[in-house]
Amino acid sequence: MRRSLAVAAGTAALVTMCGCTAQTTDAEGKARAPVHIDVSPTGTGSRTAPTTRTPPAAPGDGEARSAAPTSSPEPSEPPEPARVLWSRGDTGREVRELQARLQQVAWLFEGPTGTYDEATEEAVAGFQGKRGLPRTGRTDTVTWERLLGMTYEPGQWELYLMGGQPAAEPDPRCLTGRVLCIDKTSRTLRWMIDGRTRSTMSVRFGSQYTPTREGVFRVYWKSRHHVSTLYDSPMPYAMFFSGGQAVHYSSDFAARGYAGASHGCVNVRDEAAIADLFAEVRSGDKVVVSW
Fold first, then answer.
1. What is the pLDDT of residues 42-56, one digit of tens each?
2. In the chain, is it the N or the C terminus that has fewer CB atoms within a 10 Å radius of its CB?
């Protein structure tokens, strides 16, 4: 009996030191099922780490537990470039409005002329660059919307500050003979012979304190290099029709447009046009000034 106990104790000690599977016997000496003895430091009974099972997802939290999509989203379409509305060489009332609005924000100091010229292109490019837009000099939809937001709608004489508006229908008194037909409403002068318009030009008139007289007159004197004795100002190509009031060229009108006014005379902006007119008009030709 003691020998059996000693053998069992020795076997247990050996197993404890080496870690193995011991074959044991029952009381009758028959073999039992092997006993696995774990001698690892943790003493958990197994060398394999326990497997952790993930609990089933609760109803409704599938999105929270789902993995991020592996496919990348499709690239978005690049934005369409802004559409160009007007560019150099274009003409018309829309260009006049563009120029008038550029004047309101002090990017343009000439015109409006109704022609998209080099000065307009440079003004648009400067406006664009100041606001972080591409400096193309062409007015596209983005540039136009930005300009609209900073300005107000220009009035009739702001659009035609330097002249160029269409002439009104001629006064009935202008339909016969040789006539300087002057209209204060459209601010134009028609040179007419027997009801036919030979030329048209922009004009401006006196201020409210020195108004241009209305009525029917006659050219009584022509003076090519005239200088006013009252105001000491040049009046080239002067054609006098009522006292000291005359039709003549005005460098001030050419420079400032309708921002200025005369002392009662009819100022012509286009020097070449009035030079031709001066050569055609005769003393005694009719002058009609009307609204």
1. 444 444 444 444 444
2. N
CA gap 177, 286 in Å, rounded: 8
If one counts every other C-beta atom within 10 angstroms of the C-beta of residue 58, the result is: 9
Answer yes or no: are the C-beta atoms of 235 and 241 closer than 8 Å.
Answer: no
Query: Measured between alpha carbons, how far is 196 from 200 in angstroms, rounded to an integer?
Result: 11
Per-residue tokens: 200: 């048209």
Within 10 A of 107 (CB to CB), how many other CB atoms are there? 20
Structure tokens at 52: 């952790």
Radius of gyration of the chain (CA): 50
Classify burial at 262, counting beta carbons within 10 Å of its beta carbon; exposed 0-12, middle 13-18, buried 19 or more.
Answer: buried
Number of Cβ within a 10 Å radius of residue 237: 24
d(CA 168, CA 49): 102
Output the pTM of the full model: 0.67
pLDDT digits over 64-108, tens only? 444 555 566 666 676 678 999 999 999 999 999 999 999 999 999
**Number of CB atoms found within 10 A of residue 104's CB:** 14
